[in-house]
Design a protein that fits this description.
This protein is α/β, with parallel strands linked by helices and 502 residues long. The chain has three domains: 7-140, Phosphorylase Kinase, domain 1 (2-Layer Sandwich), CATH 3.30.200.20; 147-332, Transferase(Phosphotransferase) domain 1 (Transferase(Phosphotransferase), domain 1, Orthogonal Bundle), CATH 1.10.510.10; 350-497, Serine Threonine Protein Phosphatase 5, Tetratricopeptide repeat (Alpha Horseshoe), CATH 1.25.40.10. Helix content is 47%, strand content 7%. The chain contains 21 helices and eight strands. A five-stranded mixed beta sheet has the order 1-5-6-3-2, sandwiched between helices. It has a three-stranded mixed beta sheet with strand order 4-8-7, covered by helices on one side. Helix 14 runs antiparallel to helix 15. The longest helix has 23 residues, at 383-405. It is elongated and about 90 Å long. Residues 1-30 are annotated as: Disordered. Residues 66-329 form the Protein kinase domain. It catalyses: L-seryl-[protein] + ATP = O-phospho-L-seryl-[protein] + ADP + H(+); L-threonyl-[protein] + ATP = O-phospho-L-threonyl-[protein] + ADP + H(+).
Amino acid sequence: MGCCNSSLLPENHPVEKRSHQSLQQQQRRPSLSLQAAVEGSGREVPAFAQFSLAELKAATNGFNPQNAVSESGDKAPNVVYKGRLQSRRWIAVKKFARTAWPDPKQFAEEASGVGKLRHRRLANLIGYCCDGEERLLVAEYMPNDTLAKHLFHWEKQTIEWAMRLRVAFYIAEALEYCSSEGRPLYHDLNAYRVLFDEDGDPRLSCFGLMKNSRDGKSYSTNLAYTPPEYLRNGRVTPESVIFSFGTVLLDLLSGKRIPPSHALDMIRGKNILGLMDSHLEGNFSMEEATTLVDLASQCLQYEPRDRPNTKMLVATLGPLQTKSEEPSYVMLGIEKHEEAPPAPQQPLSPMGEACSRMDLTAIHQILVMAHYRDDEVTNELSFQEWTQQMRDMLEARKRGDFAFRDKDFKTAIECYSQFIDVGTMFSPTVYARRSLCHLMCDQADAALRDAMQAQCLYPDWPTAFYMQAVALAKLNMQGDSLDMLQEATALEEKRQKSGRGP
């Protein structure tokens, strides 16, 4: 089954239309969306694109439950996965329940509408996929957790006051932008929808701009936090979004989830100090806190017409911003997250793609299939050496090959080590295989040494460079890893031009 036809999209939508190509063809060239992702600076948001299911499966390691980043993990109705594209760009992939959007055209139209939005305060939508019954959204990945995690489940430090004001302001700016672009409805705004990017800046998840299903509920949180008019008629309005923003303000003030009705009772009783987060230890401006409490109270008014609009939110929160020169990651007490540089723009082979994705299972399959075809190096042995050592040495390698094929990586390491330690016959393939075995056993240093040894034996062998790229990435040496990936790609291209094969 292919992706849903690009004709499902409006004619004037700037989506990158992908042709229906086989998986093999996709493996031999960067997809159009990936090319867009690496154009310009690393921070540039790629053009909205249609992804294939194969690409998203590869990026998420087959939608591995270990990659699920939903607050409910892979038990959520619509699961969000962390993934990494061939370009080395991290992505968040929301996989909808199969019955959520039965009409692919409706899903494509909704996604394309959200995909037109581009703003620094949003975790922007960069693509979608329709394949059979599968419906998926692809967004920028935010590596520094949610507001809920930092507010309610912090381990090292709570969020300081100035940063809380920044969160409120930035999310208000995001809502104002969406409203100005004709997309004022946001579904289930809460602290889990506020994400922190690589700089620690708060962003509003684009996923809330689409409902969880074509006809499903727009709110999944506790009814105590749901706008009263939604409880009456089941419809989300722009004013409903303002009510939900008010609940986020309460979270920022109190550091915990307080039902709006209870908070309003405290506000009416002028018990502002009782509302404030005790973990702030009094390190906040009472004047600023009063302004924030007043704004929250307005947002939480029972009658929708009594609530402020997004312009008023921005106008009220803007003057409260302090420490404007201090980076968000410093205020959050986290290290700045450095995104890996883009991958080379040349077409990658299956081995290159597997290494760029850090897909050890795919690398294993490729090495098994390749066997020893690249070991065309001279191994001159005397008759005496053949008779005395060759049989035992080849038997050790044979046992290693069986273990490697059967994914018994510890046994394979032992057998290949016996072969190598004899030192009579040299095999770059054995070093490459043992390198992968070390990676499978979380021994990145040993894996790197073996990959370097394979290069010494066969200086122009792409596989040796690919294995070094993976080992370096495992050691968090992303720049060196990319250099090796580029070198391997160049060597592979040279081999293909010379007619020596991949």
